[in-house]
Structures are given as C-alpha cells and as structure tokens.
Amino acid sequence: MKRREFLTIPAHTLGGSLWYSLAGRPSLVSAQQKELRVPLRFFTAVEAQVVTAACDRIFPSDENGPGAKEAAVIIYIDRQLAGPYGRDKYRYTKGPWRESVPEHGNQRPASPRETYRQGLALLGASFADQTAEEQDRRLQAIERTDFFQLLRTQTIEGMFCDPLHGGNAGMIGWQLIGFPGPVMTHHGQSANGSKRPAPRSLEQITGRRVKGWEDEA
User: Of 47, 55, 111, 170, which is most buried by a Cβ count within 10 Å?
Assistant: First the structure.
C-alpha cells in the first residue's frame, strides 16, 4: 500500500476561506489555523511543492489580485491526475502516432500522468527552492514541451474551476474576474455591474453535494 503523502499549506497564503478535503468535503479555514495538511492523491510532497512553485510563476499574485498559490491550484491538478483524466481512461491511446493540428487535442502516447512525471524531471526537485528569476529561466527553457503546455492550461483551469474540483479556493478566481458562478439567470443584475452578486458555487446553487469526475471510482 502506498504511504499517504501530504502537502502543508500556510493558511494565510490561501486567498479564500474554503478548501476541499481528500473526500471532497468543503471545510472553512478558521482564523486560528496556521497551516493546512492536504492529503495528496497523485503527487509526492516534493512534486507538489515543485508544481505549486511553477504554477505560481505562471499565474502569480500581484497588485491586481491573487494567483495560483492563493487559489490552491495544486489541489485541482493533483485530483485531475489521480482521476480518470490522468490515466487517460477516456482517450484513445493506440497508435499510429502522428503530428496533428492543436484542434485535435493530445495525439501523443504519454498520458497526463506520464507527461507530468517527465516534466518534473526536467524542472528538478530543487525547483521550489530557486529564486523567481531562476524558476522563470527553467520554465522558459521548457515552454515548448507538452508538459509546459499542459501545466499552463491546468493552472488556468485551477484558477477558475468550480471549487468542488479543488481549485479556485473561496472562489477567489471568480471574484477576480467578476464571474457569478453557474447561475441560471442574470435577472436583477444591472448592466454596469453595480448590483453584481457574490459568486456562488454549483453546490451552493443546487443545495446538494456535487461529485466531480475526478472522484470516479
């Protein structure tokens, strides 16, 4: 049996107040909590630190608002790789392998899991300990690889996904862009946004637990 590994996240770095446990249950981060120990499904603790640092360089926090670290993007990516997507459950994975146009999606034999393992080896286990300038240099050196393209895409997904998938902690990504959540109507909202409501997640709107596809058995 594989030993469970955890990622320790300082509570003050989370821009939102909501995060999801391994079982997918939402928890509020209290003011008394100094750190969170999040159980990892796919990554080792060292790998999770590397991915966290890389995502933070791709979507950093700045004067405009929070970034990937505050949105807990790492939790989103970890769950996606641990689920059916990560192991290519729904993708045709037989040859022949040919180069194709981007619109056709991934045409290579490596699964998302394998792509991450290969990419993490390129970044190195010490990536999280490097200066921001060195991290940028290493990312620029691999920006044409499948790994970087996948990492960039999933960083954006983790910033703006529904929180039930693990990212967008406290819906800070939606607050950043003014997205109200998957509401069925915009009745009562003004055109200039003066009555823009706080965003609501799918679970808040439906009033019931919603299961993401990454939680499939």
Answer: 55
Q: How many domains does the chain have?
A: 1
Q: Within a domain: residue 194?
A: yes
User: Whole-model pTM?
Assistant: 0.83
Which of 134-144 are b and which e, b meaning 16 or more Cβ less than 10 Å from the residue's Cβ?
Answer: ebeebbeebee
Q: Rounded CA gap, 145 and 120, in Å?
A: 12
Amino acid of residue 60 = P
Alpha helix positions (H), the chain:
45-58, 73-82, 112-123, 132-141, 146-160, 172-177, 202-206
Within a domain: 1: no
